[in-house]
Amino acid sequence: MFKGLYVDKPESVVVLEEQEAELQANQVRIQTEFAAVKHGTEFHLFSGQSPHAEKRFDAGLRLFVPTSEQERARESARRSSVGNTAVGRVIEVGSAVTKFKAGDRVYCYGPAWELVTKAESDVEPLYEPMTPQDAVCLDPALYAFVAVRDARARLGDVAVVFGLGAIGLFVVQMLKLSGCLHVIAVDPIEKRRLLAERYGADLTFDPTQCDAGMEIRKVLGQGADIAIEASGNYKALSGAMRAVRNCARIVTLGYYKGRDTELELGAEWHHNRLELIGSMPVWDNPLRDYPLWDNERISRTLIELFCQKRLISDGIVDPVVNFDDAAAAFLAIYRDPTHAIKLGIRF
User: Where is the Alcohol dehydrogenase-like C-terminal domain positioned along the sequence (predicted)?
Assistant: First the structure.
C-alpha cells in the first residue's frame, strides 16, 4: 500500500491509500523522494472555472465541445491526482527494462504519491549536478523556453514579463540569457518581484499600486519591444497591451480562468496594431521552429543549462513541506499565494 495526494471534490484535497498494481515488463517503480505541484494548471482545474468543467477538447476538431450530463457526472465522481513531477529512487524494474536498475535516482512526470510506476520510456535519470529542485522545474522551464523563442527575443530588445510564478521567473532568466537590454517584471507579490530582481530583472512593478504600462513608458520613453504574459490573468494581458510599443509582440502562456471581463480590444490592441502570439508546446501543437526544434531537443537543452548553472531553480520551489502537510499547504496556497511560488513536497 502507498499514500497519494488527490482532489476528491471541488476545492478539497485529501490523502488516500492505494494498492500498487502488478509491475509490467516495461515499467519502473519509483520510491518518491520529492515532488512538486504545477500551480497554474492544477489550481485552475481545482477552481472549477476551467473550460474542461463543462466541455471537453475534441482533438480531431481542435475545438472544445459540450459534454453530456453523463460525462459530467463521471468526471465529477473521478478523483484526480495532485502533482506534476516526481523525483526518487528506482526500487523495482520490469523484466524488459534495460535503462534503469534498482537504486538509480530518476525523475518523471508524475503525481505526488509515495510510489510512482511509469513506463521506462517516461522516466529520466537525474543527471548530476542537477538537484531534485532543478528536476521539478524542468516543466515550467520548458514552457518559458518556448515562449521566449515564440517572442523572438533578440540582442538589445526591451522586454516586459507579466506574472512571476515559476514560468515567469524562468522567462526573466531566459530573456537575460537572450541578450535583452532591459527586462522589466510585473507581479503583485513582493516575494516574486524580489526573486525576479535576483534573477536579473532591471526593474519591477506592482500592478495593484500603479499603471504598469504608463510607468514603463515613463522609464523607457516608449513601450517595450515584447511582452510575455505568464499569469493567465486578463488584467495582466490588458496591462501587457499597454506596456508595449506599436507593432510589438505579446506572447501569452498563462491558463486563463473564467470569462474575459478586462480586455478592451478597441484600445491599445487596435490602435497600436499589436501581434498576439499563443505559446503552447503541448496538446499536439508543433513548435514554431519544428523540425529544427522539438520537445526532446528542448529538454536536452534545458538539462544542459541547469547543469551549467546558467538556469537556476534556487528560490523557485518555495515552500517545501513534508508529505503529511501537503494537502493543507496546497489549500493554503490556493487561497492565498502571497508567500508561495511553487509548492515542493518532501517524502
Answer: 166-279
- On whether both 69 and 53 belong to a single domain, the answer is yes
pTM of the model: 0.93
Pair (25, 125) in one structural domain:
yes
In terms of domains, do 132 and 183 share one?
A: no
The three cell numbers of residue 295 are 520537445
The answer on 179 and 90 residing in a single domain is: no
Residues 320, 272 share a domain: no
156 with 252, same domain: the answer is: yes
Q: Both 163 and 271 in a single domain?
A: yes
Last residue of a domain, which of 231, 260, 278? 278
Domain that holds residue 238: 141-278
Give the number of domains in the chain.
Answer: 2
Taken in order 239, 63, 280, 108, is the CA torsion positive or negative? positive
Per-residue pLDDT tens, the chain, 347 aa: give them: 999 999 887 778 899 999 999 999 999 999 999 999 987 766 666 656 667 667 888 888 888 888 887 776 666 556 788 999 999 999 999 999 999 999 999 999 999 999 999 999 999 999 889 999 999 999 999 999 999 999 999 999 999 999 999 999 999 999 999 999 999 999 999 999 999 999 999 999 999 999 999 999 999 999 999 999 999 999 999 999 999 999 999 999 988 876 666 788 899 999 999 999 999 998 899 999 999 999 999 999 999 999 999 999 999 999 999 999 999 999 999 899 999 999 999 99
Q: Residue 251 carries which DSSP code?
A: E
> Does residue 168 share a domain with residue 108?
no
Q: What are phi and psi of 297, to 5 degrees?
A: -65, -40
Give 97-101's long-range contacts (Cβ < 8 A, gap of 24+): 97/25, 97/26, 97/27, 97/28, 99/123, 100/28, 100/125
326 assigned to some structural domain: yes
Name the nearest CA neighbour of 309 among 126, 136, 87, 128: 128
